[in-house]
Design brief:
Blueprint (H helix, E strand, L loop, with lengths): L1 H16 L10 E2 L5 H8 L5 H10 E4 L2 E5 L5 E4 L1 H11 L6 H4 L1 E2 L7 E2 L5 E9 L1 H5 L8 H23 L2 E7 L4 E10 L1 E7 L2 H4 L3 H4 L11 E7 L2 E2 L18 E6 L10 H30 L3 H28 L2 H19 L2 H7 L2 H21 L9 H15 L16 H9 L6 H19 L3 H7 L4 H11 L5 H16 L4 H43 L12 E6 L3 E3 L2 E3 L2 E3 H10 L10 H5 L9 E6 L11 E3 L5 E8 L17 E5 H10 L4 H8 L2
Antiparallel strand pairs: 1-14, 2-3, 2-7, 3-4, 4-11, 5-10, 6-10, 7-9, 8-9, 10-11, 11-12, 13-14, 13-19, 15-16, 17-18, 18-21, 19-20, 20-21
Length: about 700
Amino acid sequence: MKNFKIAGIIIFFISILLIPSHSDEGLWPFNIPPKEILKSKYNFTVTPEWLTHIRLSSVRFGNASASFVSPDGLVLTNHHVGRRTIQNLSTKKRDLMKEGFYAKTKAEEIKCPGLELSVLQKIEDVTSQVLAAEKPGMTPAEAAQARERTIASLEKEYSEKTGFKCNVISLYSGSMYHLYQYSVYTDVRLVFAPEYLIAKFGGDPDNFNFPRYCLDICFFRIYENDKPLKTPHHLKWAETDLKEGDLVFVSGNPYSTGRLLTYSQLEFLRDVSYPFLIDNYTRQRALLKAFASKGSEETRISLTTLFGVENSLKAITGYQSGLLDESLMGKKAEDEKELREAVKANPELQKECAAAWDEIAKAQQKYSKFYVPLQFFEKARGFNTIYFSYARDLVRLAQEKGKPNEERLEEFRESNLPSVTRGLLSSKSIYDDFELVKLADSLALLKEQLGDTAEVKWILGGRSPEEVAGELIAGTKLKDIDVREKYIEGGIEEVYLSSDPMIKLALLIDPVSRGLRSKYEKEVEAVEEKNGTLIARALFKLKGTSIPPDATSSLRLSFGIVKGYVEKGKKVPFYTTYAGLYERSKKFGAEPPFNLPQSFIDKKSNLKLNVPLNFVATCDSIGGNSGSPVVNRKGEFVGILFDGNIQSLPARFVYSDEQNRSVMVHFQGIIEAMLSVYGVKPLVKEILVK
């Protein structure tokens, strides 16, 4: 009887999702495309063949996005997505961030240790299996544990059966569960990257703004059995110009949105989470800038980390601006009030979910009391060094491997173990002076915030954060891959008997970290999921409109039109040109971050200055969409998404296409630079071959 009810809910969800909407909102799973919306609004027919081609041409690149752009495994993503890998391949004598890189032959392509790319091969609906794990009378924590056991079992079963990496994705606050099956590739090599100065032209001042002038691209190649991967599904370059009003699509892995969150969840972000994160990132930025000011080598070492911190700070500040906007929060409050009143008027819904909002609100109150300790211990903000990341993974890998798969922490389930092991055994450029500065400051902040806790007292032992950080960095041997491999092979005994101070630190704080994580999962996450599911059911039943799911760092399709916008009464054109790039550099006296690399100074006369460089469209996007391919109706490549404008940030919670724009690198601008500045004709030929 219960399975029949679950099946009915699934059918109801699917039917509701096919009702047309009135805007370009939506980050849609590939197995639930907005066919009716696209047909009614844009007269575009989505076919299974079109969807399959775009899906198999799309690549997951870490926590971001990319695409195949040739039949020989050539992958295009953003420079800022590949920057950590590019930085890791750099040395003091060969700075690929500063100088750029081009492999003239495949033999010159550089292997990228630890890099893992994946392609979504199949999606399967497993909602009935997951929800069937819940039994009447279970508490939210018990129900969550039952679901997680089933999810772990499904991931292991399908991974063993298919050979793919399998992950179950939760949609609509736990109302749907889809199993994503990925091909994973680990032999990845760098092919081409422009200089950092042109990829990130305008730096933090221009970040999340438009007009923009960035060549934010780089190319990698996937190999299989030491040969370029054959990729029959790849994106062909468009042959016609982009015009304002053209329909375009974005395929990528958006990280997280909060459009289905309750008002109390938004209040928690506004009043607790975001203020903490903004303060934390502001402090880190000041620390990193001080380190970079010491010299050119320190600047090179800290460049990638500083960019990440600045980007996160600006993004979260933008999200917070939306939650501080009285009109936005007023709209969310009114929408929630209307939904709750409608639920009260329906006896069936009143009985089932009238208390759902209050239960979530109570969970937020509980969370606010231990959010900060959770951040410092379980999220490791008090131990900001790659050495601690290694130590924690080694400790937990040894602990979790001894448990049944369904009882493990999610990140150490069988389906995820290969990725964890590869990360531990990959070579990375580690600079102890840099690690010391980061760790000392994070320990100092830990002392300021939680100095009275027993764990902090044990860690510091009456010494200064700088002294403790110095001892930890000087004493650890985890820089050595062979040492890390020894711990992996030796298992729990090797870890527990270790004399490495970083391993000892990870072991010391593991009980409190796990305790805080368990408390969050039982008292907050489980309550949010159970009651969020009830609210989602009520919303679908009462509203009867098309509601896309929130982003979950899984492959999604969004759509929109190429379109400028009006800001402060002034029309902002939909594209920029190379001429505008040089004008903007001149406006600021070519001072950082508006200085150009020497290649663009020397080759200016070669460039067609009227060629488009960047453009905007109304496509829905969020962090994680960086590197996403942008295609036209024919599925042809027309650009690569690399940012959103400042007006797009509050769209994490409420979408509007009035000014919200995604920012892309124009396909013609990419080819123009590759030919006229870099002279990489063989690579262009590979991309444009028919």
